[in-house]
């Protein structure tokens, strides 16, 4: 490779804002990174994580943290030894083929990641559902966005965020709920600050049990009790009905199901809503008026004169045992007030991971199929089978994340393939997940980093490329597809994820489909993407007008962008027509359900989890860089000062934090933004920083030693945002 200085346009691999980056490189080394001034997600800005990406690709990091060669363990617990790619792939093929032959296709499972590129995701999904014949494909997007998916589909008819970043500049009210945007989506928060500077009348309501940095910047903070979101939204709708703030013409013309919801919210009076949520009545009244587009309660204004409201929401709604209900109850408010399909208005889920959207587009969850098709729909299954050139796609839903590891723990799943994710740290009820991997007969871990908590459970470790080395596409929160490009060659023998999946699929199909033409004739990631593009023809996310060449020439584009379209669509449902059978959006009538594991006498604290500003996920990348520990150098359990006093603790004292599933020890810290009887621990810390044990003695790491696997019955997303704990001075 030339040693001349080179610049390569790509995308930040961290959060769903999807910022464009320009990677500076020389020879095999990434030497710098800066924001891409032409990328419409960030216009040149980067946050603390994005702007230090090049330092996490330094040689010292690569040498010590990266997985560089295929490795095999002769026995569990043994040191892994390097093997050739040929040996590794032969063994993987042999073991998977054997399990499938002896126990059937549902005895294997694939657990993937919202960090994978769309092309990687596509191959894995087709490999499992098309070739092997199992729907046991799920991803860490199940822990991230599956409630948003279910909420959109239940109300608007398709998993399509209707708004865009530009709507920030048109909104009069921002309703930020279940999102610490300032930390989780920092560059989007910069755009909110810009919008506020340009339009001082812009007002911000933040709904959060904690007074986060986002809440501290709000005009109105609704500090609700954990998990009481649905009660709050129903209470807002009750007030909107009482005060005549709903848009009756919009409801009549574009929706169904309002009468049932109207009856449902009758009991959510301001007093009752305040009792259920802990939010003072006057704040609920103020929020209802602002959301509906009025300046003050009772001010009155014709619908046409009301100002636009944009909701931004994330894991506070999604990571919940009633996640679908929370998402849908919020969307109910937009439909009832006509706050959708116009500039500055609409429900807008903020994607946690960089490509959870792309994964959803290819159907990379156990209940989905390509291009937003549903596994439960026989017509959709037939369409996908035809596209893939297979006889059929199995009808039975696969195991979602929690159930996949339960099935491995029960011995039903005997071979697991884990790619680009770290379930030994990131899944709830970590003890069960670790026991499941230990019991599984054969575990493949396809990873860029050798040091994750999951790698010790692997029989076979396959080295994958990562940011700066990979090629493909990702889709951000506003449906914008961006290119990801390699700036340097892969280190050691690392290979691209799509390539590893393709080679495995090709080897496996010689066993399962011998003599028939290959389903996986993919010489390049572009060839994978072209097949994915064809699968979207005529669907809500149609991108048949897009190509790698067009992305190269015109930059990132939003879907839908069908053949012949001049541009993608910035905003959806401007015509009031929804992708449902009758073209109408559906109100979602749901009761308020409290958290799955309420606090009680034995476990008297509500534990909340969330992000830090400068760390990402399990820290496999950001944890390699000292400067990213500047804001928060060590894990803490944050408590209201009154609670510290009541427990006889000083800041810095060590505390046992124990739930029904495990226990960890960490220092206490005072934070008066946390309500009494609540506690907060950041999600990132792994075993290097925060180790513990389960009740059965399994070694654990981080906050997911404590969290509950109880999940939403519709989205199957677990309630990572709440469990009951007790605290004892260590
Ligand atoms: Fe990367 Fe998100 Fe920061 Fe943008 S906001 S630079 S995508 S981490």
Rounded to an integer, what's the Rg over CA atoms?
A: 25 Å
Instruction: Identify the CATH architecture of the largest domain.
Output: 3-Layer(aba) Sandwich
Average pLDDT, rounded to a whole number, is 96
Structural class: alpha/beta
Tally of distinct domains: 4
CATH fold field value of the largest domain: Rossmann fold
Summed up, the helix count is 23
| CA distance, first residue to last residue | 56 Å
Ligand kinds: iron/sulfur cluster
Query: What would CATH call the class of the largest domain?
Result: Alpha Beta
In terms of per-residue confidence, which ranges show pLDDT below 50 for 5 or more consecutive residues?
A: none
The 3D shape can be described as: globular
The proportion of strand residues reads: 15-25%
**Main beta-sheet strand count, sense and barrel state:** 7 strands, mixed
- Record the strand order, biggest sheet: 5-4-18-17-16-6-7
Q: Tally of extended strands? A: 30
Q: What's the helical proportion of residues?
A: 25-40%
Cofactor: [4Fe-4S] cluster; Mo-bis(molybdopterin guanine dinucleotide)
GO cellular component, one term: oxidoreductase complex
Family: Belongs to the prokaryotic molybdopterin-containing oxidoreductase family. NasA/NapA/NarB subfamily.
GO molecular function: 4 iron, 4 sulfur cluster binding; metal ion binding; molybdopterin cofactor binding; oxidoreductase activity
């Amino acid at each position: 490779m030339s040693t001349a200085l080179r610049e390569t346009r790509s995308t930040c691999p961290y959060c769903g804002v999807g910022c464009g980056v320009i990677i500076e490189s020389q020879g095999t080394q990434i030497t710098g990174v800066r924001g891409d001034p032409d990328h419409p997600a960030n216009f040149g800005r980067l946050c603390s994580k994005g702007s230090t990406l090049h330092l996490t690709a330094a040689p010292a990091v690569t040498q010590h943290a990266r997985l560089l060669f295929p490795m095999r363990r002769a026995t569990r617990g043994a040191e892994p030894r390097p093997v050739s790619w040929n040996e590794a792939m032969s063994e993987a093929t042999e073991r998977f083929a054997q399990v499938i032959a002896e126990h059937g296709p549902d005895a294997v499972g694939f657990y993937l990641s919202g960090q994978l590129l769309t092309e990687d995701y596509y191959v894995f999904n087709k490999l499992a559902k098309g070739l092997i014949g199992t729907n046991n494909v799920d991803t860490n997007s199940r822990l991230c966005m599956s409630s948003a998916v279910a909420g959109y589909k239940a109300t608007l008819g398709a998993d399509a965020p209707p708004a865009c970043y530009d709507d920030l500049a048109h909104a009069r009210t921002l309703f930020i709920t279940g999102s610490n945007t300032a930390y989780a989506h920092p560059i989007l928060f910069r755009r909110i600050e810009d919008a506020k500077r340009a339009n001082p009348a812009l007002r911000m309501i933040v709904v959060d049990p904690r007074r986060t940095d986002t809440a501290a910047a709000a005009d109105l903070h609704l500090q609700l009790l954990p998990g009481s979101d649905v009660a709050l939204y129903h209470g807002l709708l009750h007030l909107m009905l009482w005060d005549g703030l709903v848009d009756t013409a919009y409801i009549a013309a574009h929706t169904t199901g309002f009468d049932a919801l109207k009856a449902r919210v009758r009991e959510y009076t301001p007093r009752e809503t305040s009792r259920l949520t802990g939010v003072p009545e006057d704040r609920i009244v103020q929020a209802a008026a602002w959301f509906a587009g009025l300046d003050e309660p009772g001010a009155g204004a014709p619908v046409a004169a009301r100002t636009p409201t944009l909701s931004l929401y994330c894991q506070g709604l999604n990571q919940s045992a009633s996640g679908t209900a929370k998402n849908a109850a919020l969307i109910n408010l937009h439909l009832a007030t006509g706050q959708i399909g116009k500039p500055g208005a609409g429900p807008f889920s903020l994607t946690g991971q960089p490509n959870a959207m792309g994964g959803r587009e290819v159907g990379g969850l156990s209940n989905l199929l390509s291009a937003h098709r549903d596994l439960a729909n026989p017509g959709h299954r037939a369409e996908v089978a035809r596209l893939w050139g297979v006889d059929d796609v199995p009808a039975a839903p696969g195991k979602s994340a929690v159930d996949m590891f339960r099935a491995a723990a029960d011995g039903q799943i005997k071979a697991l393939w884990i790619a680009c994710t770290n379930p030994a740290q990131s899944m709830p009820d970590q003890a069960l997940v670790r026991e499941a991997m230990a019991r599984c007969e054969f575990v493949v871990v396809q990873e860029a980093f050798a040091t994750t908590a999951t790698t010790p459970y692997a029989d076979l470790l396959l080295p994958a490329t990562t940011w700066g080395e990979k090629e493909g596409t990702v889709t951000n929160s506003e449906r914008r597809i961006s290119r990801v490009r390699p700036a340097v060659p892969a280190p050691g023998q690392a290979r691209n994820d799509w390539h590893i999946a393709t080679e495995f699929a090709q080897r496996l199909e010689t066993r399962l489909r011998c003599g028939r033409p290959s389903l996986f004739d993919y010489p390049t990631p572009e060839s994978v993407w072209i097949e994915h593009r064809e699968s979207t023809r005529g669907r809500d996310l149609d991108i048949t007008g897009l190509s790698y060449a067009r992305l190269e020439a015109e930059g990132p584009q939003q879907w839908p962008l069908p053949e012949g379209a001049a541009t993608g669509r910035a905003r959806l449902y401007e015509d009031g027509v929804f992708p449902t059978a009758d073209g109408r959006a559906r109100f979602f009538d749901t009761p308020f359900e409290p958290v799955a594991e309420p606090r009680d006498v034995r476990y008297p604290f509500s534990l909340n989890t969330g992000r830090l500003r400068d760390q990402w996920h399990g820290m496999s990348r950001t944890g390699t860089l000292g400067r990213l520990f500047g804001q928060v150098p060590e894990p803490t359990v944050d408590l209201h000062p009154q609670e510290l006093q009541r427990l006889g603790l000083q800041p810095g004292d060590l505390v046992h934090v124990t739930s029904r599933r495990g226990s960890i020890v960490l220092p206490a810290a005072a934070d008066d933004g946390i309500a009494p009887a609540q506690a907060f621990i950041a999600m990132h810390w792994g075993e290097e920083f925060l180790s513990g044990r389960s009740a059965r003695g399994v070694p654990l790491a981080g906050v997911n030693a404590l969290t509950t696997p109880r999940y939403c019955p519709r989205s199957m997303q677990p309630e990572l945002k709440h469990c009951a704990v007790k605290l004892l001075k260590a």
